Amino acid sequence: MGWFNGWFGTRWYGMLYGHRNTADAASIALPIIQLGGLRPGDTLLDMGCGRGRHAEVFAKAGLIVTGIDLSQASIEDARSQVPQARFEVFDIREPFAQGTFNAVVCLFTSLGYSGDRTDDQHALDAAATALVPGGLFVLDLLNGEQVVPNLIPHETREIEGVHFTIQRKTEAGDIVKKITVEERGVQYDFEERVHAWQFEDVGGMLRRAGLVVERLTDGTCLAPFQAQRSDRMVIWARKPA
Q1: Which pLDDT value is given to residue 8?
Q2: Three-state secondary-structure class, residue 42
């Protein structure tokens, strides 16, 4: 687990991605509920749930939500902020349940951080295993075909007195983001490395997991995916009944 450096559980991660709030989560969670035909009382597994912002929207809509994430700090925050859902520290590459959930979601690019694509295949296999027959799987990933040509190589931000320096590049099919945090004269260095996904790769992995792709949309969930224009791809798949 060398890729998991603790960055995702820090308060600085929450500061840098503070715009990824409940309103932002609702912009994808509510269409998933509507277009996926989910109803109050349905069970949903949120894989890579982070601090629970998507889980909160699903739970408020009446779904019975379980969130899993590898970050202990994120899970503790989620339990505090979303008491109506269940949260567990768990590696999404391992099977969490068998034939249990009406829906499984994996949102905000929670795949691709390991250098081994078989890790991602294991995660998709685990998602398929957790679903009831006929269950819905929704996978939200960045679109490498659009994101890579438009990378911003250098950026600085000042947030609540904390200085962030962000450097981005591509390396061996991955998008590498180096984050330097400076607070009260002390410097901390972190790295995000995520695969630059293309639909052809993901579609094959889903088929190998036994899932059938039904729909491919952009990040709004409402418009069709366009490989050269959409910065995100949302893949809708179902476990055969």
Answers
A1: 80
A2: coil
Please tell me the CATH superfamily of domain 7-143+198-238, with its number.
Vaccinia Virus protein VP39 (3.40.50.150)
Q: Which of 74, 44, 77 is nearest to 60 (CA)?
A: 44
List C-alpha distances in Å: 211 to 80, 106, 218, 239.
Answer: 34, 14, 20, 5
Asked if 229 and 146 count as a contact pair (C-beta separation under 8 A), the reply is: yes
Domain ranges of the chain: 7-143+198-238, 147-193
Look-up of token digits 């609702």? 26
Residue found by looking up tokens 């450096």 in the block: 5
Nearest to 86 by CA among 43, 129, 139: 43
The Cα angle at residue 144 between residues 239 and 117, in degrees rounded to 5? 55
Tell me the C-alpha distance between 20 and 122, whole Å. Answer: 27
- H helices of the chain, in order, are 11-16, 22-35, 53-60, 72-81, 117-130, 144-147, 199-208
What are the angstrom distances between the C-alpha of 49 and each of 15, 30, 85, 127, 171? Answer: 17, 16, 11, 13, 27
Residue with tokens 């476990």: 239
pLDDT in tens, 180-213: 999 999 999 999 899 999 999 999 999 999 999 9
**pTM, entire model:** 0.92
Q: Maximum distance among all alpha carbons in the chain?
A: 58
Task: Give the phi and the psi of residue 182 in degrees, each rounded to 5.
Answer: -120, 120
Please name the helix (run of DSSP H) or strand (run of DSSP E) that holds residue 190, with its range, or none: strand 186-195
The neighbour count for residue 33, using CB atoms within 10 Å, is 20
Asked if residues 55 and 49 have their Cβ atoms less than 8 Å apart, the reply is yes
